[in-house]
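Practice problem 4.
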């Protein structure tokens, strides 16, 4: 049994590795590619950057509202491989191919036929976002399907987050050297060019699909009485089921505020290192710091949750990140203080994510007891939905700050004005800090679904369903 558990945990963790490598590429580095290389040299570069950025934000926000419906499609999928694995494979393959397409200018169309370029971009990006959603929701919905035991859920969530940390931060650590290396091979220039960005996307696409296949191979759904006897929700009642789950809704409000704040900062942190600190070559350390803090924070989560409960893990982590914001603003010219701020900012993120993920996972049984229906993929679709909203706004924030602060094209730290730096600090640190504070208050005030409460719910469900 233990060998089987470890096979599932490792397979699931590897899936998270590729999944978050893809997520950070799409949410952060794609727009950096757009703002630096996709339209480089064109006379209307800034206008095209604005158009693509706006399209990305608009498409992702519109498609987000389909995520619960996608979750319901997954919940009602019946194959001999289960309901999640087919969507991992199909979603992983199509979204990976689409990623390669958007890291190009479609064979020069951006220069020769901008209208056709925009039309094709919209089509490809809609396909990408739709199939990425199927993969995203299927992946994170597997936890309550694999086990109803809270301890095993925490272990699955922990190893998954460990893989996520390695994927996201490893990508951050390698994005600059990979793009420069492949640009040099193609052009002979030591810079981040279009060729380098394409091969970077190729590597991410292969990793994303390959690890999704490993997850599909190495995991198995659990057929407990709670899952077997749970009625399905009708498509017309999907949003009603979500809205009636009050604990899910309060957690969603808190987490979306937090996620918006987090991506608003991480999306432009490279700009901070390049234009404010003036050391773009040191940005690889952000990936290293994120990886090391992930190694430390993720394994600590089960112990911290047991010792002080998820509630205080969530709130205390946000307090630590608020301290990091102050250090970024007031210690921006000191490399040592910036490194300390980066550590304080990245270390708590894994703890906040796991606290939110475990609470949302427990909301599956909470909703089942309260509403009489079990919605695994529908309920768990809320977490990816919230991150996608944050990711969509991250794309917009990066594009906006890049232009507003004068950090486009061939700008340097010396050419960025004091006004530009103040604009950057306001949007990258002060406003996100206010959002994080709001997130902590909502979680402390309204989220009541504790570990003890979930255990009581599971026992009550078992008793009720056994009696039927």
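Answer key:
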């Amino acid at each position: 049994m233990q060998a089987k558990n470890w096979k599932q945990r490792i397979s699931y963790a590897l899936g998270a590795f590729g999944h978050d490598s893809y997520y950070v590429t799409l949410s952060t580095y794609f727009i950096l590619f757009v703002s630096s290389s996709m339209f480089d040299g064109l006379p209307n570069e800034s206008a095209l950057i604005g158009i693509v950025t706006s399209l990305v934000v608009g498409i992702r926000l519109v498609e987000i509202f389909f995520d619960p419906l996608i979750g319901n499609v997954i919940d009602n999928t019946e194959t001999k491989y289960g309901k999640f694995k087919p969507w991992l494979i199909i979603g992983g393959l199509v979204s990976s191919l689409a990623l390669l397409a958007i890291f190009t200018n479609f064979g020069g169309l951006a220069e020769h036929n901008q209208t056709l370029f925009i039309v094709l971009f919209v089509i490809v990006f809609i396909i990408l976002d739709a199939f990425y959603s199927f993969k995203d929701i299927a992946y994170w919905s597997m936890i309550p399907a694999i086990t109803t035991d809270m301890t095993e859920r925490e272990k699955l969530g922990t190893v998954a987050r460990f893989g996520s940390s390695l994927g996201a931060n490893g990508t951050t650590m390698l994005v600059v050297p990979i793009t420069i290396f492949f640009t040099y091979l193609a052009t002979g220039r030591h810079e981040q060019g279009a060729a380098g960005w394409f091969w970077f996307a190729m590597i991410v696409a292969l990793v994303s699909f390959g690890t999704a296949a490993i997850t599909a191979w190495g995991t198995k759904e659990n057929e407990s009485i709670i899952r077997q006897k749970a009625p399905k929700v009708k498509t017309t009642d999907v949003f009603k089921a979500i809205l009636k789950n009050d604990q899910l809704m309060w957690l969603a409000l808190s987490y979306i505020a937090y996620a918006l704040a987090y991506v608003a900062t991480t999306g432009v942190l490279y700009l901070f290192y390049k234009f404010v600190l003036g050391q773009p070559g040191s940005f690889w350390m952000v990936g290293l710091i994120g990886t090391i803090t992930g190694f430390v924070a993720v394994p600590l989560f089960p112990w911290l949750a047991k010792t002080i409960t998820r509630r205080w893990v969530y709130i205390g982590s946000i307090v630590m990140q608020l301290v990091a914001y102050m250090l970024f603003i007031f210690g921006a010219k000191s490399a040592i203080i910036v490194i300390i701020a980066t550590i304080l900012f990245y270390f708590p993120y894994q703890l906040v994510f796991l606290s939110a993920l475990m609470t949302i996972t427990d909301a599956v049984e909470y909703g089942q007891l309260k509403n009489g229906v079990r919605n695994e993929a529908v309920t768990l679709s809320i977490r990816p939905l919230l991150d996608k909203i944050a990711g969509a706004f991250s794309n917009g924030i990066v594009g906006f700050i890049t232009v507003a602060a004068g950090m486009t094209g061939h700008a340097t730290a010396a050419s960025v004005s004091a006004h530009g730096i103040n604009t950057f600090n306001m949007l990258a640190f002060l406003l996100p800090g206010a959002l994080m504070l709001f997130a902590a208050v909502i979680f402390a005030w309204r989220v009541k679904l504790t570990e003890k409460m979930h255990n009581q719910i599971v026992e009550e469900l078992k008793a009720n369903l056994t009696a039927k």
